[in-house]
Design goal:
It is a single chain. The protein has 398 residues and is an alpha/beta fold. The chain contains nine helices and ten strands. Strands 1-2-4-3-5-6-9-10 form an eight-stranded mixed sheet, sandwiched between helices. Helix 1 packs antiparallel against helix 2 and helix 4 crosses helix 9. The longest helix is centred in the first third of the chain and has 27 residues. The termini are far apart. 35% of the residues are buried.
Length: 398
């Protein structure tokens, strides 16, 4: 800008000189000089103004006087550095809980005797568990359960048709022969009592054991034990009704067992036949076992009722099916003879233990154990059925 102003001044000056040469010394020359003097003053004033504008108050150049100069901008305040957050402490790893140990089965303190009269049951006795493991007592989705058949058979002993429930093993086929277990109910009961509700009971336990290879596949038979020729059902605890239960041994041997052999694929013989019962059914299991050891290789009595031998309880003075001395075996005896009961049983009391004492005195080999804390029912019932099912049908065929 300054250079341009100086150039302009130089041009004016040259023009003034030319005017002096061309115009001479007249009045017009004065006027012309006056005009050019004014112009010259304006140009000088502009130069002074430009010079002043090019300085700041401290005499420093603030304008862009050079096209290549880098502009100066106000300094941007450097922001305070953001504080680096403290690293979050890595939590201590949660300890992986140890798997709950499956409690070891509690084995019963068995009393078994080998006095030369009866099979040696020591091996079976050593496997008796006080309480049936819960995993065996309920129906499972990965276990197959067989068909349940409700039917009747004609009893010549009673002179009438009698009700019957049969539980077949899973995959039952006529191409195979199966051992049979007869399961007997308590006093005043029926064929429906011992099979359970379909989701539990001995049928389920037997199938669960068989699925694990811990028991043999078997047919379970649930009869109505009451075997009177004069009345169809139990009517009270008296000698007549007790005699009707004792008569079941004849109904079983003469009518029920032949019916099963005629209609189902049965493995016959004592080593393929078992009987087990609860309460009155336990008493009758013992009665059948001692009456026909040639037909039954396995006998189980769970909380057996009084009356197998003479005795008196809160209900009746029992005459007894056998005398105490008669509770012995001859040349043939059961492979398994098991008696058990709850030690708090308020119904049959000490009668099961009295049978154990009689058999001990008579030198009869048997298995005896008590279920601590059990009254007349579970857990004694499930314990007895579980242990019996896993013991039977394991004797080598003769």
């Amino acid at each position: 800008m300054i250079i341009m102003s100086i150039a302009r001044l130089y041009v004016l000056r040259q023009e003034n000189a030319r005017v002096f040469r061309d115009e001479g010394k007249g009045t017009d020359m004065k006027k012309s000089m006056k005009k050019r003097g004014i112009a010259l003053m304006l140009v000088c004033g502009m130069l002074v103004g430009f010079a002043a504008c090019g300085k700041d108050t401290e005499g420093k150049t603030t304008g862009n006087t050079d096209a290549t100069a880098t502009p100066v901008s106000e300094a941007t305040a450097t922001p305070e550095p953001t504080a680096t957050p403290e690293p979050t402490a890595t939590p201590e790893p949660t300890a992986t809980p140890k798997p709950t140990a499956t409690p070891a089965p509690v084995y019963a303190e068995n009393a078994w005797f080998d006095n030369g009269n009866g099979a040696d049951m020591s091996v079976a006795a050593a496997t008796v568990e006080v309480k049936a493991p819960a995993a065996y007592t309920y129906k499972k989705s990965d276990v197959e359960y067989g068909e349940i058949i409700t039917t009747t058979y004609y009893s010549t002993t009673c002179g009438r048709d009698k009700n019957l429930i049969i539980a077949l093993p899973a995959g039952y086929t006529e191409e195979k022969q199966y051992p049979v277990t007869y399961v007997l109910h308590g006093v005043g009961g029926s064929e429906k009592d011992m099979i359970g509700n379909g989701s539990s009971g001995v049928r389920v336990m037997a199938a669960n054991l068989a699925a694990k290879g811990e028991a043999e596949e078997m047919i379970l038979v649930f009869p109505n034990m009451y075997s009177s020729a004069t009345q169809a059902s139990f009517s009270g605890i008296d000698q007549e009704n007790m005699a009707a239960y004792d008569n079941f041994v004849n109904d079983m041997v003469n009518d029920l067992m032949p019916y099963m052999e005629a209609n189902y694929s049965i493995a016959t013989g004592r080593l393929n036949t078992a009987v087990v019962g609860f309460s009155m059914g336990g008493r009758e299991s013992l009665c059948i076992g001692f009456s026909r050891p040639d037909l039954f290789g396995y006998v189980g009595a769970i909380a057996p009722a009084p009356g197998l031998t003479p005795g008196k309880d809160m209900f009746l003075d029992h005459v007894g099916t056998f005398s105490e001395e008669e509770l012995v075996f001859g040349d043939v005896s059961p492979e398994i003879l098991m008696i058990c009961s709850g030690d708090k049983d308020s119904v049959v009391g000490q009668f099961p233990k009295s049978y154990h004492t009689i058999l001990t005195t008579n030198g009869v080999n048997h298995i005896w154990y008590e279920i601590p804390g059990s009254n007349h029912g579970d857990p004694a019932m499930s314990s007895g059925l579980y242990n019996f099912c896993k013991m039977i049908f394991k004797t080598e065929q003769e």
